[in-house]
Write a structure and sequence with these properties.
Blueprint (H helix, E strand, L loop, with lengths): L2 H12 L21 E5 L2 E4 L4 E4 L14 H12 L9 H13 L5 E5 L2 H16 L3 E5 L12 E2 L9 E2 L6 H4 L2 E4 L4 H10 L4 E6 L15 H12 L2 E5 L11 H6 L5 E5 L9 E5 L1 H4 L18 H16 L2 H23 L5 E5 L2 E5 L8 H4 L4 H13 L2 E2 L8 E2 L6 H16 L4
Parallel strand pairs: 3-15, 5-8, 5-9, 9-10, 10-11
Antiparallel strand pairs: 1-2, 2-3, 4-12, 6-7, 11-12, 13-14, 14-16
The protein binds pyridoxal-5'-phosphate.
């Protein structure tokens, strides 16, 4: 047994499924999880001493790579000065100002401790502000694990959703309607069927939790028009896209301004953080200003703020990082598409900037229905061939691949050479 297998066996004695978040169990690829011991730049080491080029990147936060020195130093310094006070600190002011300066349209912002919490708070704000109850989400978009977001499509168009997890009540699920991603026609039908009832539409401006599915031209613009026309709010869940697509987030990147944003991942620099914010009039319903209650013992935590500030200030001070990330992403996507084409393997490589997914199906993948056509057994074989060559990818077809500033041009070329070897060698 490898050390990773031993640890996994021990973990299963005390932790449900041996992991603290289900995707870490590596079920889709059918092997023991990689137990990480250390990370540096683009690389991580596991409990068996194996080194990997890491493209999981902690699922999004690590745009600067592992143990980025300015972040690590900020964390240590903050911890030495007291890890938590439950009182306001200057770093929270700095963080809020920085987000408001970088994201056009964010006027007030509240820190929380996870993306899940950011989303459930933003939805409460939307309901409190509009006095309406229904929320519309898109199939294949993930917004954390709050009850109202663990909902799948109902039996027919424009009908209430059904629970997508045991423990979510039918009543709660009925307050969320699920729409196909990139389907403006279905969105219009939902609005027509629920006039004056929809509090908000929440969307990942780039779908990144069903594999990467960029918005079709005009999709986000249509959502903006429809919500405005119907008096509903538009929420961009930028937990992944925020400060990853650009310094001005997806809203700045696409030039579409929602009413509310949710953030997480990158703004915590690797520590547990989330935030929600937006228009001043909307956010003014939040307590103690207004009647919508939301609170948190560790919200705006000094150590987490220090980490997030160090990361965001690095990005602001070096905007060329985004150009380089885009070039690396482009090179990787183009290279992979050529390899699979040459080898006659049905695959569709999608992505944007530093995000990518290889769907093992003929593309394009525009929605979760399309994504589900992927050959997941082939993805598992691909994952294993990359893993044994020291390239660590998300252990599931329906996830993004994250490139960080720490990945070099050589890392990308090595990735491509591994994929080519695997594809040519008949491993896939
Ligand atoms: C990761 C993620 C969340 C949930 O964030 P957590 O910090 O894991 O609770 C919400 N929305 C999107 C788009 C995400 O990718």
């Amino acid at each position: 047994m490898s050390r990773c297998e031993e640890l996994f066996a021990e973990a299963r004695r005390y932790i449900p499924g041996g992991v603290n978040s289900p995707v870490r169990a590596f079920r889709s690829v059918g092997c023991a999880p990689v137990f990480a011991t250390r990370g540096e730049g683009a690389y991580i080491w596991d409990a068996d001493g194996r080194k990997y080029a890491d493209y999981i990147g902690s699922w999004g936060p690590l745009i600067l790579g592992h143990a980025y020195a300015p972040v690590t130093e900020a964390v240590c310094a903050a911890a030495r000065g007291g890890a938590s006070f439950g009182l306001p600190t200057e770093r929270e002011v700095e963080m809020a100002r920085l987000i408001a300066e970088l994201v056009e349209g964010v006027e007030l912002v509240r820190m929380v401790s996870s993306g899940t919490e950011a989303v459930l708070s933003a939805l409460r704000v939307a309901r409190g502000f509009t006095g309406r109850e229904l929320i519309v989400k898109f199939e294949g978009c993930y917004h954390g694990h709050s009850d109202g977001m663990l909902v799948k499509a109902g039996s027919g168009l424009a009908t209430a959703g059904r629970p997508d997890s045991a423990g979510v009540t039918a009543k709660t699920a009925a307050e969320t309607i699920s729409c196909r991603y990139n389907d403006v026609g279905e969105m219009k039908e939902i609005f027509a069927a629920h006039k004056g009832e929809i509090a908000a539409v929440i969307v990942e401006p780039v779908g990144a939790n069903m594999g990467v599915v960029p918005p079709a031209p005009g999709f986000l613009e249509s959502l903006r028009e429809l919500t405005t026309a119907q008096g509903a709010l538009l929420i961009f869940d930028e937990v992944i896209t925020g400060f990853r697509l650009s310094l001005n987030c997806a809203s700045g990147y696409f030039g579409v301004t929602p009413d509310l944003w949710t953030f997480g991942k990158i703004i915590g620099g690797g520590l547990p953080v989330g935030a929600y914010g937006g228009r001043r009039d909307v956010m003014s319903v939040v307590a103690p200003l207004g009647p919508v209650y939301q609170a948190g013992t560790l919200s705006g935590n000094p150590v987490a703020m220090a980490a997030g500030l160090a990361a965001l200030k690095t990005l602001r001070g070096a905007p060329h990082i985004y150009k380089e990330l885009a070039a690396k992403g482009e090179r990787l996507r183009r290279g992979l598409a050529e390899i699979f084409k040459k080898c006659d393997i049905p695959a569709c490589v999608q992505g944007i900037e530093s995000l990518a997914t290889i769907f093992f199906t003929e593309g394009p993948v525009r929605s979760y229905d399309d994504a589900k056509k992927s050959d997941t057994a082939r993805y598992a074989r691909y994952w294993k061939s990359m893993e044994k060559r020291g390239v660590l990818l998300a252990p599931s077809q329906f996830e993004a691949l994250f490139i960080s500033a720490a990945h070099s041009g050589e890392d990308i070329e090595y990735f491509l050479s591994c994929a080519e070897e695997a594809a040519r060698g008949g491993e896939l």
